Amino acid sequence: MDVMERIQKQVDSAAIVLYMKGTPQFPQCGFSSTAAQTLASTGVEFAYVNIFDDQEVMQNLPAFADWPTFPQIYMNSELVGGGDIIVEMAEMGTLKAAMEEATTKFSAA
């Protein structure tokens, strides 16, 4: 399986997937920390991938969805965006509902 197939399998494996530097418990950069905290604040479960654990994923993920930076957040296999997008969604009050909808759709599939 090549790296793009591995990434596709990862984004397909959970309703919400956060690609980040580090882990939610031990983030390795401020943007990843903010993204993980923002997602966690909703109380909705999400998966994460520590890009430092797989250099191929780290190098190829920007090309996967044409998004150059980390973190990257996927819901139902589609790129939502980076940390700034989900912070904005949280401020507008739409993040939790979007995450709950993604989880419901994923469970029904």
Automatic annotation (TrEMBL):
PROSITE patterns: GLUTAREDOXIN_2 (PS51354). It holds the Pfam family Glutaredoxin. One of its GO terms (molecular function) is disulfide oxidoreductase activity. Keywords: 2Fe-2S, Iron, Iron-sulfur, Metal-binding, Redox-active center. The keyword Oxidoreductase does not apply. [2Fe-2S] cluster binds at residue 29. The keyword Mitochondrion does not apply. Transmembrane segments: none annotated. It comes from the Bacteria. Residues 16-80 form the Glutaredoxin domain. NCBIfam families: Grx4 family monothiol glutaredoxin (TIGR00365). Belongs to the glutaredoxin family. Monothiol subfamily. This is Glutaredoxin. It comes from Bathymodiolus thermophilus thioautotrophic gill symbiont.
